[in-house]
Amino acid sequence: MLPLHRLFVAIFFGIAACTSSAVETSEIMFEGKRMTVSEVDLQKDQLELFLRDEKGEPFKRFARLDGWLGQRDLQLRWAMNAGMYHRDYGAVGLFVADAKALFPLNLANGEGNFFLKPNGVFFITKQGAGVLSAESYAALKPAAVLATQSGPTLVLDGRLHPAFRAGSLNRLHRNGVGVRNAQKVFFALSEDPVNFDEFARFFRDRLGCRNALFFDGTVSSLHDAQLKRSDEKIDLGPIIAITEAKKP
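The structure assignment produced for this chain is given below.
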């Protein structure tokens, strides 16, 4: 873990307010399941990652992050939990904010969804967004200004994760991210329980994303100021967000 002063630099000085957000959130039905989808155009909105404040305290909740932003004349426009975390709320895998890696890429083997290989990384470079397997990310070393690692991957190059099974009874509320092209990103949260196969096919077949990454399950949470929605299910680790200038 980086020293505290570098942690502050990476998370705070990367903030850039969006004067008018173009993110669009809507509910989509897929095979009888309700999905809340936020479409982000990177040509109009800037995504940022948040984890801890300048004192090293984890934000944990959208409300606390929004209050912290408010002290800096900003406010939370949109946000979602964005990756798995340890008991101290530190990221399990790669976490890059403002082009600085606060937590390293995790290529270890283990148990649980994060380690269901291939796992992967959602990242943004100056050229746009992408999703790669963790191994491909390690090999290609993209110059990411933002990156978060989670697992399993949902879709890679149009193919579903090989471990997914149609009809699986392992259904939970889930959230994740999919990339249609370098500038078009979709964040989805299932309002009804879904299995991995259903969730992955939703990204690929309904949203047209050839690459998508699972973020988390039961903790899946969304903040959308325009919809006046701000979930408070459980304390969160990494949070991906869009900020804007605080309104009078």
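Interim note for the steering committee: The mean pLDDT is 92. Residues 165 and 197 are 6 Å apart (CA to CA).
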